[in-house]
Amino acid sequence: MTDATQQGPGRDAGAGVLPDGTAIEAADIAASPPQRALVLHRQLDKVWRDLPGWRGFFTSVNHGTIGLRFMATSFVFFAIGGVLAMMIRAQLATRDGAFLDVELYNQIFTMHGSIMMFLFAIPLLEGLALWLLPKILGARDMAFPRLSALGYFCYLFGGTVIVLSLLFGVAPDGGWFMYTPLTSRTYSPGINADIWLLGVTFVEISAMAAAVEITVTILRCRAAHMPLTKMPLMAWYLLGTSVMMLLGFPPLILGSILLEVERAFGWPFFDVARGGSPLLWQHLFWLFGHPEVYIIFLPAAGALSTIIPILSRTTILGYGAIVAAVIGLVFLSFGLWVHHMFTVGIPHMALAFFSAASALVAVPTAIQIFAWIGTMYEGRVTLRLPMLYVMGFFATFVMGGLTGVMLAMVPFNWQAHDTHFVVAHLHYVLVGGFVFPMLAAVSYWMPLISGRWRVAGLGEAAFWLILIGFHGTFFLMHLTGLLGMPRRVATYPGDPEWEWLNLISSIFGMVQAAGFALFAFDIVMQWLFGRRSWRNPWKAPTLDWAMPLPAPSYNFASLPGPRQPDADAILPLARGEGLLPGAPRGWRETLVVEPGSGRPQHVMVLATNTALPVATSAAIGSFFAMMLAGLYWLAPLGILATLIMAWRWGEIMGTTTDHPPAEVAPGLSLPLHWQVRNTLAHTGAVALLVADATLYASLLFGVGFLTVVAPGWPAPETGFGPWMLPLALAALAAMAVSTVIAHLAEARRDSAALRVWTLAGLGAAGLGLALLAPLALGLDDPTRHARDALRGAVVGFAVAHGVIAVMLALRAHVDAVRGRIGGDRRGALPVWQLFQKFWLATSIVSVALICAQEVLA
Ligand SMILES: [Cu+2]
């Protein structure tokens, strides 16, 4: 239906439009004729399944496999973090516990917090999102399957390094928030802090990958004609989560990079004596750390909004209000970080603002809680296992919310700050707001994962042990905190009145641990001995149950269309009466829609089994390993290996021939993704640049913050030569030229001169990068003062992006030479353009910034 010879700007209109030019409406989509379900299954299974045996472990990219791996691995780390928690409780059971020495105790509480946050909570929600999203949205896979696999291996390797450090006695010990100057070279000379900084950053790569992937999948990989306003609530929650991850993680990643550079090379970002400030770390950390609470709460709340109506035999109350509450939380959560810094000495005006915002955040939370209670009131609640965990959530989370409002009051906060009261509060919020809903989710979706039904009684026993154990442990900590017991102390010999409360806490802690062990045992028993579950055991109306149990690798034999939006469609979909039935071309295909309306636009051909993700994560890992070993001169080799791998990712993205449109339904054919401009890769690049821009903005925040607030300014005289400004302007000019050429190349993609254009663009981008190098070398010694260190970071940012821009230009040129561009095929051109603009814009700001510093100094 796309006319390949049609020219001009309108030719992309082939996507989502009928031959006569009108948009594809739901009524235009006819049902495909039914086929034999078994034949379709065999055809799809052959295309979609993982390779057998160990090869499958290294090459699988399927969202089902990767999502389950994420979840299983996160539960292993949860068990390790739980054992550490029990060691803490054993130590505190008596007033001068001789179980651990102070040094080991510091490592253990730091590792407990870091593991639970970075290796359990975030990966578990990523795993759930990866596994579940295509199923509830009506797609066959996530938008970027290889990215899922890359994220998993980065998580696995990084997490393993962090945990192994404990065995070698070099685990991080500066608290999970890693405050400077405690974690700077002077006070933490070992590699403990480096393990945290490098390991967590490595794991964060997987979080960024997941955030990009979740955002793009929700916006563009939904069932045909499922508008944003009608998608399942879970998708809204996960969209909110992924947006917060895109905006919340970059400050932490930047902070980790800066602190590691300070530790490794002596650049003084946080060193007061040389113009830095430890407060900069706190701001960057809590810019991430506070939204983090909502990043893990939102998916859990999404699970609640899914499970509660189904187990109450009704529909959710107030869909619109809940969506508004989710959006409200996303905005509010970013305004709150400073409430973690009440007592570091900030202006009173700011205190008042953050106190108000902290109290205000209770409003969207309350809207959701009332919607859930109303839903249960309207319906008939059946107290099956997932519902028990929902009740556990209510009992725990509401209590955590109330103490949160208490802590939002500045006078009370001054009293309770850094006592066990805060420890109790945060565990009520995190366990109530994340662990209980996630256990509900696991027991709810387990039949779809295993295809089996659980053994009666075990799950209930586990629930009661966890609930009683939890409240027994943490309720008392409010009291120990009010009695004044500070956090993070290993012994309290002078305060015998805290002892009996701690002892009872520790005993209940063991009860809770037994409950979690029983939960795990229940899952194993279900796998081994559960009887086969019948289809749709909860009688849920949602699309995730419109498939056989356990869920097949391709999810749907044909994708749900406008008339098949719920679980009743299971048989028609299995018979191929939906869209894109089977795998007639032998490719992994899924439908891509317009973000808002859900009108079908084109067909995406997804990557199949490949070892590239594991090889890439090994390359990135080699860089981190060499940094950790202090082999700084070898570390560039790791970067080089990573760049080589990155180059290979682009290899499968192109095609040299025009493929005929794929038949989606009778009389409706759509172009394949190679022949459209607005691909998933393009949307993904936009999402990634949003995160990148946030990172850059955090860096600018650092410059502003240190310049205004830090002691030790003004900075010493610069050796800024008069030759540097013309050089910088020449670099900017070269970047501007390459940006313009990237546009011209796309406009001239059918001309014989295309290769000349891309080659010229490559040359201009390369010149821009080459001119940055002497500029970087001409800067003042970055170890001298924070201003010089920040300049180094700003110019380093431009250089790093220059390298990527040159690689994209080279990719565009190679695409042109190989005939991958022409007609409707644009190869790497759109993404190259996008990146060029970003490089140019940030570089202009950087040069302006340095000039302004010179003028104002
Ligand atoms: Cu907070």
From TrEMBL:
It comes from Paracoccus liaowanqingii. It is a multi-pass membrane protein. Residues 42-563 form the Cytochrome oxidase subunit I profile domain. Its main location: membrane. The keyword RNA-binding does not apply. Belongs to the heme-copper respiratory oxidase family. It comes from the Bacteria. This is cytochrome-c oxidase. Pathway: Energy metabolism; oxidative phosphorylation. InterPro entries: Cyt_c_oxase-like_su1_dom, Cyt_c_oxase-like_su1_sf, Cyt_C_Oxase_1, Cyt_c_Oxase_su1_BS, Cyt_c_oxidase_su1_bac. GO terms for biological process: electron transport coupled proton transport; oxidative phosphorylation; respiratory electron transport chain. PANTHER family: CYTOCHROME BO(3) UBIQUINOL OXIDASE SUBUNIT 1, CYTOCHROME C OXIDASE SUBUNIT 1. Its EC number is 7.1.1.9. Gene3D superfamilies: Cytochrome c oxidase-like, subunit I domain. Coiled coil: none annotated. Signal peptide: none annotated. GO terms for molecular function: cytochrome-c oxidase activity; heme binding; metal ion binding. PROSITE patterns: COX1, COX1_CUB. It is an enzyme of class 7 (translocase). One of its GO terms (cellular component) is plasma membrane. The chain crosses the membrane at residues 66-88, 108-132, 152-171, 195-221, 233-259, 279-304, 316-338, 350-375, 387-414, 426-449, 461-483, 503-529, 603-625, 631-650, 685-711, 723-744, 756-777, 789-810. Keywords: Cell membrane, Copper, Electron transport, Heme, Iron, Membrane, Metal-binding, Respiratory chain, Translocase, Transmembrane, Transmembrane helix, Transport. It is found in: Cell membrane. It catalyses: 4 Fe(II)-[cytochrome c] + O2 + 8 H(+)(in) = 4 Fe(III)-[cytochrome c] + 2 H2O + 4 H(+)(out).
